[in-house]
Amino acid sequence: MPEKLSIVGIGGTTSAGSSTEQALKIALRAAEAEGADVILFDGPTLAAMPHYSGGAVAESEEGRRLVEAVRGAHGVVIASPGYHGSISGLVKNAIDYVEETAKDSRVYLDGLPVGLIVTAYGWQATGSTLATMRSIVHALRGWPTPLGAAIRSVSGMFKDGHCSDDASRGQLELVGKQVVEFARLRKAAPAILSTGPVEE
Questions:
Q1: Which of 129, 48, 139, 60 has the alpha carbon at shortest distance from 99?
Q2: 140: confidence class by pLDDT, cuts 50, 70, 90
Q3: How is residue 88 annotated by DSSP?
Q4: Which helix (H) or strand (E) holds 176?
Q5: In this structure, are residues 107 and 198 in contact, taking their beta carbons and an 8 Å threshold?
Q6: Are 65 and 105 contacting, i.e. CB atoms less than 8 angstroms apart?
Q7: pLDDT value at position 191?
Q8: Cα(37)–Cα(45) distance, integer angstroms
Q9: DSSP 111
Q10: Is the dihedral of CA 144, 150, 156, 157 positive or negative?
Q11: What per-residue confidence (pLDDT) applies to 40?
């Protein structure tokens, strides 16, 4: 039996069940429906992680789990609220933990498809935050999927894990599906090999 793909979801806010977290879960359910195993690091989990520093992983069980999950991942989905036109500090701190993979044979997110989701109350924040997240993924050598979901979240739009707006739900599901699709292609016929550890 072929190895199942592992997709890691990272995102949310300090509030359990936030719109961002629910949006991420919709994308991850779509990835599961495509046959992947998913691992979720939600907002409250990220909030338990100390500010990243060289020794932070040793102090944080959540940080260690995140780093090990990313090391074993075939794809990643990252979801952030748009705070003041950019990615939240909570989500950025979690991404900073990926620095622990700098000396791995697969550096950072090298060659991994990465789906991106932004939720915000205004369109301007969704666009600028999505652009920032794409820049971060490029810096980590990942491949942002063709579609990034920019969701203008209005009150009551997300409830009990569901999205009442069909277009937004479709975007989120497509993000999850694209991550699995590209992860499957990458695994079957890798076009880009790891470039190795970063030299200091």
A1: 139
A2: very high
A3: -
A4: helix 166-188
A5: yes
A6: no
A7: 58
A8: 19
A9: T
A10: negative
A11: 98
Inter-residue contact 56 to 105 (CB < 8 Å): no
H or E stretch covering 115:
strand 113-120
Q: Is 41:62 a contact under the CB 8 Å cutoff?
A: yes
DSSP-assigned beta bridge partners for residue 43: none
Q: For all residues of the chain together, what is the average pLDDT?
A: 90
DSSP state of 98: G
Q: Which residues contact 131 (CB under 8 A, 6 or more apart)?
A: none
What domains sit in the chain, N to C, each tagged with a CATH number?
6-188 (3.40.50.360)
Tokens representing residue 77 in the block: 């989905």
pLDDT at 23 > cutoff 90 = yes
pLDDT tens-digit series, residues 64-120: 999 999 999 999 999 999 999 999 999 999 999 999 999 999 999 999 999 999 999
Q: How far apart are CA 39 and CA 73, in angstroms?
A: 9
Rounded CA separation 143/115 (Å): 8
